[in-house]
Amino acid sequence: MAKRVSVDKWLFTVTLLLVFIGLVMVFSASAVMAKERFGSPYGFLLRQMAWAGAGIVAMLAAMNIDYKKYRRPSVVFTFLGFTCLLLIAVFLFRDSHNTHRWIKFGGFSFQPSELAKPALIFYLAYFLESRWQQITDWKRVLVPAAAPTLLLALLIVKEPDLGTAIACMAISASVLFVAGMNMRYLWYALAGSLLPLYFLIVRVPWRWARVQAFLDPFKDPQGKGFHIIQSMIAVSTGGLAGLGLMEGKQKLFYLPEPHTDFIYAVTAEELGLWGSLLVVLLFGIFLYRGIRIALRTEDMFAKFLATGITAMVVVQALFNISVVLAMMPAKGIPLPFISYGGSSLFITLASVGVLLNITQQTD
After folding, report:
1. What are the extents of the domains in the chain?
2. Please, what is the average pLDDT of the chain?
3. Count of C-beta atoms within a 10 Å radius of residue 15
């Protein structure tokens, strides 16, 4: 029988530390850009602080709501349907940089693809709770479980945002794996995705250019490979202790989006190896505590929720850091809690609140 215990203090503390590091690094990475764009070096920081405050309030609220209330069909399917509608609605708004990723009203903007991750997690947890023992039945269990993932991924790819679509599929695969899915189905899925990925990557010039830059950035150092080279320069010049906070040079119009996609490169340059390893360590602790929660609970709904939320944070962190270290092509995925971006920060913190509530009801 589950009993109410204190919240996981490790998970709670690690989350707040990552948010704090994020606020510091957003200010350091964006101050010059904000001064030029808004007339104040605090432009991006103040916006991120507002989202962080709202996200922490949401986390505290979710932490005190019994996670069992989310297993209702009315909650799960309303959440999933609302997310689908928003992902369709983005195409009604004017594009930004040839993409339809944002819903904008005045000065407020929101990225619906961020909602897709928790929506899929809640759906999979609800659907698999009573069916995980029949996980080998691919017609009645695997296909209905995977169908919403494929639908949302297709809508996100259409924006276009292939990186987030891949992240959604990785999160779903993590939950299905914990539910007992035979690994051969994962290989089938990977094999079946080769042809679509060929058309989405090789036949799309700008994506293929990213792959070529990843394979050999020095072939075109002033063009396709410029961003990757600047990221590697930032990481390598940081040394052990870093150049010091606010002292980084690569963020000064060399690194693309230094406060978002490449904020880890700024962290490595200014805080050095020790600072960048601290960030990795914090995500490692988050992973450990998330896995521990999933293993300790006997409630299958909670187990799948904990797995999905943990995977949501760690998969994105792995993708982002790998891109910065030139270990995979650029994907445009933010570093959770740290990269500038209100939608990502708010939704991730609210999701962690659900995870923290589960920790209060473990055996």
Report:
1. 9-359
2. 92
3. 26
